[in-house]
Amino acid sequence: MNQEIMRRIRQVLLVLLILGLLYYPFYSGDSRTDCKTMEAAITKLIKSETMNKQDANGLKRYYDISVKDTEGFILYTPKSMMDVDELLIIKLKTGDDGAVFRKAVEARLATQLKNFNGYGTNQTELLNKHKLVIKKGYLFYAVSKQADTWKQIFQDAL
Asked: One Pfam family name from the record (predicted)?
């Protein structure tokens, strides 16, 4: 009888182990979505006549972030110096990078608020309604009238 109980316990443990392994990918911390997939999902809504896609130099210029510190990034900035629409998505190398990149984004936001303080009320309003999220191994930052839509697409793509 003891052997029968032990056999049942082993069977239950084996089933639990298998279930745990099957569900692990769905509950793990980081998204399996790569930057190219993320970009394909979100750039359909980017207006190329008002925004420029930036490269590694733009990431360094606007945020003082080196591309080698990321797993990938998407950065769009306004074509006009009087606009503040901006989209930044960074795939983090480690969870610790989120705090560092958040500070860089907050510094950029503070600079933009300072630049438009006193005369750019529309720009200041958009900046104050920015979206900043760190989720599943990604940092998302958006300033735009479309920021909520971009954020939803970002979250759906994770």
From this structure: DUF4358
Q: Which of 154, 14, 11 is nearest to 87 (CA)?
A: 154
Quick: pLDDT tens for 141-151: 999 999 999 99
What DSSP designation does 81 have?
T
pTM: 0.80
In a domain, 22, yes or no: no
Q: Please write the tens of the pLDDT for every residue from 22-67.
A: 655 544 457 778 888 888 888 888 888 899 999 999 999 999 999 9
| Count of domains observed in the chain | 1
Question: How many C-beta atoms lie closer than 10 Å to residue 13's C-beta?
Answer: 10
Is residue 50 domain-resident? yes
Residues 6+ apart with CB under 8 A from 52: 58, 76, 77, 78, 79
103 falls within a domain: yes
Q: Count the neighbouring beta carbons within 10 Å of the beta carbon of residue 90.
A: 28
Residue with tokens 């298998």: 18
